[in-house]
Amino acid sequence: MVQDRIAVITGASRGIGRSIAFALAARGAKIVAAHTSPGGGQALVDELAQLGMECLAVQCDVTSSKDAQRVIDAAVEKYGRVDILVNNAGITHDGMLIRMTDDAWDDVLSINLKGAFLCTRAVSKVMMKQRSGRIINIASVVGQGGNAGQANYCASKAGLIGLTKSNARELSRRMITVNAVAPGFIATMMTDTLSEKVLQDLAVQIPMKRLGSVDDIANAVLFLASDNSSYITGQVLAVNGGMYM
Ligand code: NDP
């Protein structure tokens, strides 16, 4: 399905991005892992190498257009092409609207939305020449339904859905598909900050009565990255246990 495909994944050092890297690598894709923390990328390279899987780590702050270009250039230099881009890097900086600082707004919009734009712009030139490609943006259930205390995060993820649809319309003639996966609440470091009580309350609101796992998201990405999804573009695949329909 993705054998020998070249997949660039941002924020691949942990959580959902790491799981996506393992899922794609296990099916024969070669991973280019964009990470910011100095040790994060190498740890992934070493772990995948132990399992006989290939990964190139490139330090990249997705808010920098130079870094975004560098990670795509590194992939092309090593492999000659890029087949899959997963815009996964993301942060939260929560707070109620009236107390939200300018920095909290700018940081979240910059990483979650501008970062995806910069990486997509850089990879599009390569994919347009190839006349093929898969771009997958990791949005969120709260980008669809909103959430109190997350104005910046929800705006960034709703923006990412708009970016997905616009880019899908623009790139489909070149056989490039652009889709989003919108996870519900997934057990990662991002949700580790929530108290046990909040997590229990959340689980009660989810029709499937549990938080999602990183593998739930990786499986959806794997489908959208594969040939099985070749006629699907501009869509938002919700992976949320029925939390938002
Ligand atoms: P984590 O906090 O576990 O991981 C975030 C990743 O983003 C890290 O690998 C981090 O890399 C990377 N990152 C942060 N800032 C930057 C930056 N400036 N440039 C490049 N990479 C950066 O989060 P999750 O795995 O939980 O989330 C992954 C994605 O899924 C995010 O987009 C998030 O919004 C989304 N999501 C998560 C949900 C959840 O419940 N967990 C729900 C819905 C959506 P490093 O450590 O190297 O800086």
Describe the structure.
The protein has 245 residues and is an alpha/beta fold. The chain has a 7-stranded parallel beta sheet, sandwiched between helices. The chain has helices at residues 15-26, 38-50, 65-79, 102-130, 141-145, 151-171, 189-192, 196-205, 214-225; strands at residues 6-10, 30-35, 55-59, 84-87, 133-138, 176-183, 236-239. 49% of the residues lie in helices and 16% in strands. It has 9 helices and 7 strands; from the N terminus they run βαβαβαβαβααβαααβ. It has a single domain (6-186, 214-238), classed as Rossmann fold, CATH 3.40.50.
CATH architecture descriptor name: 3-Layer(aba) Sandwich
Bound molecules: NADPH dihydro-nicotinamide-adenine-dinucleotide phosphate
Helix-strand pattern: EHEHEHEHEHHEHHHE
The total tally of domains equals: 1
Shape: globular
Brief overview:
The protein is an alpha/beta fold and 245 residues long. Helix content is 49%, strand content 16%.
List keywords for this structure.
245 residues; alpha/beta; Rossmann fold; 9 helices; 7-stranded parallel sheet; single chain; 49% helix; binds NADPH dihydro-nicotinamide-adenine-dinucleotide phosphate
